[in-house]
Design the sequence.
């Protein structure tokens, strides 16, 4: 089941998935890909989940392994945050990308479309009938399995075979690709690090495409259309996989996830270390030559000789010519 965590509905009676965009990982090689599943339109307000199912099939672009996903949408309302139920075969869902939803106004019961609804970003529009503002917000999305747990090899094939070996499953690389399924409370692959930033233990959700990457360089390498990256406002902790607003530390587990401009590595070091250590001259060790670098530079004394400029707002020579007498 796909659950919407931290769901907030304002003036919306019900919401249903119309066209879902999922990010999936191949069960054989772990390569990531996107899949679009289109469902039926929003049904009449009966209060029950839709019985219509939608399916999508494809194959991995790396190893050509076949996979399929069957989706059955649910009605989301104030007392239910279950968006849909999906049944993957040969792949594993990783994330929910910006999708098309259908909503029912809480005032006039009019049905309208909610386009490009993204996890972590509030979406609002005006009702097409009564023109009242409606909004939806979901802080995170989680994929909760239903039924008894299956082995790793059976999960990749969609068949529960006892005694199937899971040792042939390739281990995730330290590139931060994140092919494994994310579960709250468990660490990210390689603790969220990548080959560009070894001391950044988090994934960033970029609002330009709604996808999660360890850094902006990984975003540029992975996107196919080459769109520029926008400044990320949300992140996923590399130690507990909890999604939250962007910060240097995790609000859930308390781990330090990244450093600041004065301390890029995030470690308690007092040396320059080629620019990757401490950059604050006040905290640098006295044996580090960067602490005293630039102390003997010439400082301009023109301001003390001629005074501040009239437009600088620091007082100045606005009435300096009135000291003489006739």
Sequence:
């Amino acid at each position: 089941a796909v659950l919407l965590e931290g769901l907030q509905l304002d003036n919306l009676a019900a919401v249903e998935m119309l066209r879902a965009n999922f990010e999936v990982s191949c069960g054989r090689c772990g390569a990531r890909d996107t899949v679009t599943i289109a469902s039926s339109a929003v049904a009449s307000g009966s209060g029950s989940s839709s019985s219509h199912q939608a399916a999508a099939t494809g194959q991995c672009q790396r190893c050509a392994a076949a996979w399929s996903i069957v989706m059955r949408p649910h009605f989301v309302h104030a007392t239910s945050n279950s968006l849909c139920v999906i049944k993957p075969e040969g792949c594993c869902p990783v994330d929910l990308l910006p999708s098309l939803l259908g909503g029912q106004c809480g005032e006039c019961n009019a049905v309208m479309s909610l386009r490009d609804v993204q996890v972590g970003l509030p979406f609002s529009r005006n009702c097409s009938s009564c023109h009242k503002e409606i909004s939806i917000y979901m802080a995170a999305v989680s994929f909760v399995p239903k039924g008894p747990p299956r082995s790793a090899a059976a999960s990749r094939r969609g068949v529960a075979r006892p005694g199937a070996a899971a040792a042939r499953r390739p281990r995730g690389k330290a590139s931060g690709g994140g092919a494994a399924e994310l579960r709250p409370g468990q660490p990210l692959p390689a603790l969220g690090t990548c080959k560009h930033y070894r001391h950044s233990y988090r994934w960033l959700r970029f609002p330009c495409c709604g996808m999660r990457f360890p850094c902006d360089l990984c975003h540029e390498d992975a996107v196919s259309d080459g769109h520029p990256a926008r400044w990320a406002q949300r992140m996923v902790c590399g130690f507990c996989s909890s999604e939250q607003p962007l910060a240097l530390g995790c609000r859930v587990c308390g781990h330090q996830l990244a450093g600041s401009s004065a301390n890029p590595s995030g470690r308690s070091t007092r040396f320059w270390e080629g620019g990757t250590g401490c950059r604050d001259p006040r905290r640098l060790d006295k044996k580090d030559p960067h602490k005293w670098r630039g102390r003997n530079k010439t400082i301009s004394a023109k301001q003390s000789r001629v005074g501040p400029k009239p437009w600088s707002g620091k007082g100045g020579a606005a009435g300096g010519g009135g000291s003489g007498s006739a």
The helical segments are 152-157, 216-222, 302-306. The chain is about 5% helix and 30% strand. The first strand starts at residue 2 and ends at 5.
